[in-house]
Structure formats: C-alpha cells, structure tokens
C-alpha cells in the first residue's frame, strides 16, 4: 500500500488515480500524522460475453461435441 499526504495527493491527483486504476495500487492518505482515507481500486468488471469468452479453454475435448448435441435437442 502506498502512503502519501493529502497535500501530495492534491498536487498529483491524476497520477495517483492512474496508479490506483491501472496499477491496482491501494493508497492511504495521511493528514496530521494519521490516516484519513484509503483509495482502493474497483474490482475488475466484465461483460457476460467477456466472462464466457475463455470458457472453452477450460473444457475437455469432448465437451464441445456434447454441448452441440445438447443444444440441438428439441425442447418438449
């Protein structure tokens, strides 16, 4: 966790937010020698399509054949 003063945060606001967003850095803000806040990165988010796009890599070789057969079955 990176520890910086509130003054330093104000002077380098954009850079600090870039470190949080793109570097996954957690930042602790200090004022008068004690922590007043923490800035945490948000959990990564994905669309359903992105989440499912690599699913096939985790499946065994027969899974695609079985999946196709199951998908072609008619629903009563």
Describe this structure in words.
The model has no long low-confidence stretch (mean pLDDT about 85). This protein has helices at about 5-10, 15-25, 50-55, 55-60, 65-70; strands at about 1-5, 25-30, 35-40. The protein has a domain at about 1-40: YefM-like fold (3-Layer(aba) Sandwich), CATH 3.40.1620. The termini are far apart. It contains 5 helices and 3 strands. It is of the alpha+beta class.
Describe, in short, the structure shown:
With 76 residues, this protein is α+β, with helices and mostly antiparallel strands.
Q: What distinguishing features does this structure have?
A:
76 residues; alpha+beta; YefM-like fold; three-stranded mixed β-sheet; 5 helices; 3 strands; 49% helix; rod-shaped
Terminus-to-terminus distance: 57 Å
The residue ranges in which pLDDT falls below 50 over 5 or more consecutive positions are none
Tally of separate helices: 5
CATH first level of one domain: Alpha Beta
- What would CATH call the architecture of one domain? 3-Layer(aba) Sandwich
Number of strands: 3
Could you give the topology of this structure?
Blueprint: E1 2-5, H1 6-11, H2 13-23, E2 27-31, E3 34-39, H3 48-53, H4 55-58, H5 63-72
Parallel strand pairs: 1-2
Antiparallel strand pairs: 2-3
């Amino acid at each position: 966790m990176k520890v910086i003063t509130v003054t330093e945060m104000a002077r380098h606001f954009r850079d600090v937010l870039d470190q949080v967003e793109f570097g996954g850095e957690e930042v602790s803000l200090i004022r008068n020698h004690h922590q007043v806040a923490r800035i945490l990165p948000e959990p990564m988010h994905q669309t359903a399509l992105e989440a499912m796009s690599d699913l096939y890599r985790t499946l065994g070789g027969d899974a695609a054949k079985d999946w196709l057969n199951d998908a072609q079955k008619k629903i009563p």
